[in-house]
Specification:
This protein is an alpha/beta fold. The protein is built from eleven helices and twelve strands. Strand 10 and strand 11 form a beta hairpin.
């Protein structure tokens, strides 16, 4: 039995609907799926329904953007209560930050005489948590860039002319937010950060796990983080980080996390939930 614990839908910057994600997950033979859209949990209820209809286990989740010692860190929150008022209020703030940032990125593009309109990005994104992939898709669909890679390389990557830094919560705040919502906090794709020195402080702040298995981790990278997880006594997770098609194929299926890790994750969530203050 296997799981994919890192998936996106069109509730953030993925292109699939919840039903499409579950369709592909079932086709790949997964026993369990977790949804981890950026700064929202809106997709969890429909994905849970689609999983139930397909006979798959569903694990609620989100991917929060945080910061530790100047590094952008993504923190996955699993088994969170998707109706937790504080979680909803906080992600609401970060959705507003994302929407304002789209306007700033479009203004920078306009200064470069790229005639994109913010409304075109919002119409295409059609979600509360828009991001750079939506700007890239809008540039391509307006014929202003040849493809998504070109949009990122020319304009949207860090330190490129239309890149706008995003206001972020601290990693400790993200971890605390997830815990108070009854969830388990996992550092996403540590191999993409190449900043292992931030891990001890996050462990100190209560980090529960490391996403050792990720599409963009080599076997050596996965082994390195398995060792770190062992050293810091952290849970091990993994997922494809599927945003839809990649090179013409759904990315879901590239990572098959053994189900034993899901059991440990759920046991940790049960511990956090039992120590949650009564509402
Ligand atoms: P944002 O949250 O707006 O900063 O956008 C981050 C998302 O953009 C990531 O989750 C990736 O899906 C995507 N992304 C980041 N860098 C690139 C890149 N160079 N090419 C394509 N997609 C990227
Ligand atoms: Zn994304
Ligand atoms: Fe991420
Ligand atoms: Fe992701």
């Amino acid at each position: 039995m296997f799981a994919d614990l890192h998936l996106h839908t069109f509730f953030s910057d993925g292109t699939y609907s919840p039903e499409e994600v579950v369709f592909h997950g079932q086709r790949q033979g997964f026993a369990a799926l977790a949804l981890t859209d950026h700064d929202t949990v809106e997709g969890c209820a429909p994905t849970a329904r689609a999983c139930a209809a397909a006979g798959l286990e569903f694990i609620s989740g989100t991917e929060l953007t945080a910061e530790q010692d100047g590094n952008e860190i993504h923190i996955l929150g699993y088994c969170v209560d998707v109706e937790d008022p504080k979680l909803l209020a906080e992600v609401g703030k970060f959705q507003q930050v994302r929407q304002n940032r789209i306007r700033e990125m479009v203004a920078r593009l306009n200064e470069l005489h790229i005639p994109l309109e913010a409304e075109a990005v919002f119409a295409l994104a059609n979600c509360r948590a828009p991001g750079r992939p939506h700007v890239a898709r809008a540039l391509v669909s307006a014929g202003l860039c040849g493809n998504l890679d070109e949009a990122f390389e020319r304009f949207l990557k860090r330190n490129r002319p239309a890149w706008v830094p995003k206001f972020k919560m601290s990693a400790a705040e993200a971890i605390a937010l997830i815990h108070q919502a009854g969830g388990v906090a996992v550092m996403a794709h540590p191999g993409l950060n190449r900043a292992d020195e931030v891990i001890p402080a996050m462990v100190e702040a209560g980090l529960d796990g490391l996403e050792c298995f990720h599409t963009k981790h080599s076997t050596a990278t996965a082994e390195h983080y398995l060792e770190l997880a062992d050293r810091f006594q952290l849970l091990v997770t993994g997922g494809s980080d599927c945003h839809g098609l990649s090179k013409g194929k759904p990315l879901i299926g590239t990572i098959k996390l053994p189900y034993q890790h899901v059991e440990k994750l759920k046991a940790r969530a049960a511990q956090h939930q039992s120590s949650r203050p009564a509402p």
